[in-house]
Amino acid sequence: MTFTRFPDLASRALAGSVVYANDELFAERENLIKAGPAVFSAEDFGHKGKVYDGWETRRRREPGNDCAIVRLGVPGVVHGVVIDTAWFKGNYPPYASVEATSVEGAPSPAELERASWETIVGKSAIKGDAENAFEVADRRRWTHVRLSIYPDGGVARFRVHGEPVPDPRFLDGTIDLAALEHGGDVVDCSNTFYSSPVQLLLPGRARIMGDGWENARRRDGGNDHVSIRLAARGRVRRVEIDTSYFVGNAAGWASLSGTDADRPDEDAQWFDLVPKTRLQPDTRHFFRSVSAAPVTHVRLDVFPDGGLARLRVHGELVADAHRAAVLRWLDLLPAGHAVQVIHGAGVPRRSAEELLRRRPFADGGVLPSAVLSALLGEPR
């Protein structure tokens, strides 16, 4: 399951939501996207029977199947899904499929029912009490996914791993360039013994120590680090390094450096954004960047080891990078959504459909400057 290196776009930590299920009599749909593995207690019974940590529908006595719709916390390109039936042994669905759609805004369940859905995982056999993993070949960008089970049964967790592709119309001004929800991603890390460094990039404040990144204790005289690809090329203005909830195991010192390279290698030129500085436990630290040079990646070094709750890298995208993000986003949108976006930028619908024939825009296809300016939010 190499695709599991990508974040779970459906995660509740990213504001994912199970917005609809046609049936949830035995166990609530919201459990599908809970953090962590499902738990089980043999003695736990309720008024409707055995209590399960998952989504479970009633036994079906008529033709059809059950389904649940998930709004992705961050829209993106789905690389694979995991349909986890942990603890469902005699009551799991024998088959499942996954569809996806891409829409503007925050539609209601009724509006989503009328949306155009595309199959990304065809109807497939699944096993009980198992992580059923399926790779997804379709490389378009989606906002919602629909899990269908046949004919009924229970699913503990539903993970949707993929590459975040945020709406670039909302990436103007000062943003957190490292944030997962803006397209930041961890590309390298020295140690993930206790927890994933991806948690550094999650929205909001950490709630417990386990919400951050913690490495193992070092005994070799070196130091730990994590490298992050930013949402796009930008200029860093402010940095926050947060050690909240790390009391006896926070990093002692930290530094942040940046580089401007598509794929940094051993010869990449790194320069200081925040020079090595002392950290305090359980504290939010704020710094101004000592360089305004454009960067594509940042590297956070902690000395010698220790935990951090969050890393924020505030800055602005450079103009060329913002334009490139808009063009790539348009290329990844399904046709129906792309037409809607271009039409919303002031282009007649028929002309918008004609423009789509020029895709990919990021690879030579010409998008009228007036349309690009409208999507960038530039004044007319």
Automatic annotation (TrEMBL):
Domain Allantoicase: 16-164, 183-317
GO BP field: allantoin catabolic process; purine nucleobase metabolic process
Catalytic activity: allantoate + H2O = (S)-ureidoglycolate + urea
The keyword Transcription regulation is annotated on this UniProt entry: no
Enzyme Commission code: 3.5.3.4
Pathway: Nitrogen metabolism; (S)-allantoin degradation; (S)-ureidoglycolate from allantoate (aminidohydrolase route): step 1/1
Annotated keywords: Hydrolase, Purine metabolism
GO function terms (MF aspect): allantoicase activity
Pfam families: Allantoicase
Source domain of life: Bacteria
Family: Belongs to the allantoicase family.
Entry protein name: Probable allantoicase
Organism from which the protein derives: Streptosporangium carneum
